[in-house]
Here is the input.
Amino acid sequence: MKAKVAINGYGTIGKRVADAVAAQDDMEVVGVVKTRPSFEASIAKEKGFPLYAAAKENLEDFKKSKIEVSGTLEELLDEADIVIDATPGDTGEEYKKLYQKHDVKAIWQGGEDHELTEFSFNSEANYDDALGRNLARVVSCNTTGLVRVLYALDTAYGVRKARVTLMRRAADPNDIKTGPINALVPDPIKLPSHHGPDVNSILPDIDITTMAVKTSTTLMHLHALNIELKKNCAEDEIIKLFGTRPRIRLVSSRDRIRSTAEAMELAKDMGRPRGDMWENVVWKDSISINKGELYFFQAIHQESDVVPENVDAIRAMLELETQGNKSIKKTNYALGMTS
Ligand code: NAD
Here is the structure.
């Protein structure tokens, strides 16, 4: 029997996780939840996902729009083994009570604080700790991207300290509320940005400080990393190490990938759904050891890098697979993340 997954919040992250879950052979989407009728609600139905209204008050709107719903979130929760909460941040406490009332496991996204679930997840770094849990949070897109590289480096060489500057996309491409803008905004203006402490919610022993700047772009985030390792190593060894990781894609400016725009074009040309890039895009020709310290650039596709982590979190919490590396392989294979 397939595990039954409900998706509450069918926006940027929710709709991608729904497709990723539907692509797996050990889980299925039993319903997706929208607050109001929209083109996304119609498409969810076309894809065969049962559609539910967030609350009874929303039913009338759906009735008027002639988009039929199968019921409300509360009814859906009674059918599900686990719910992916991809609502905008800050509804966590309220929905936590509801999920617990219906005795359903729940996974939140990076917009909620670590304290909501007391457990933050990354597939490679702490899959084992997620086994059988009732509540978890998949950390944000930036933190997922940082944990992937820091976990790999820490395991191989030990990280003495990491100093990272994040250039953050200001809005998602479909977001008309936040833009257009014409400025670079230090955010927050004073150290630290939340990403460093957030990395520590998964890798508590890493000395990391992050600064972040919002930039006038919607495509991807760009990270500039400076890392002091405990053991000496060569640039080639770092390239080799990243080449072995399942969710790091090495690219080169020699192949004319010199920007986030070209990294996104690569994803589109690879035929990725919605042009998504689930992996960290690390420029191998940016990897430098300078005065004993490691430097490199990576780009993070904010709309999609957390998607495979949500699938693995489901598998771990429902104990569909007890080994993290097997789950990662299975997820990647089902998504077509093989080249
Ligand atoms: P979004 O605004 O694109 O989608 C949120 C969806 O939830 C929308 O469909 C909205 O209609 C629905 N919704 C709003 N209130 C609701 C409610 N009370 N009950 C049910 N549904 C409700 O948001 P998003 O970008 O997908 O973000 C979702 C979560 O994922 C947030 O925690 C965010 O921080 C996190 N996240 C976002 C990104 C990103 O770049 N977009 C990346 C990683 C993590």
Notes: The chain is about 35% helix and 25% strand. Residues 8-14, 33-35, 54, 86-89, 91, 109-112, 140-141, 172, 302-303, 306 surround nicotinamide-adenine-dinucleotide (CB under 6 Å). The CA atoms of residues 242 and 248 lie 6 Å apart.
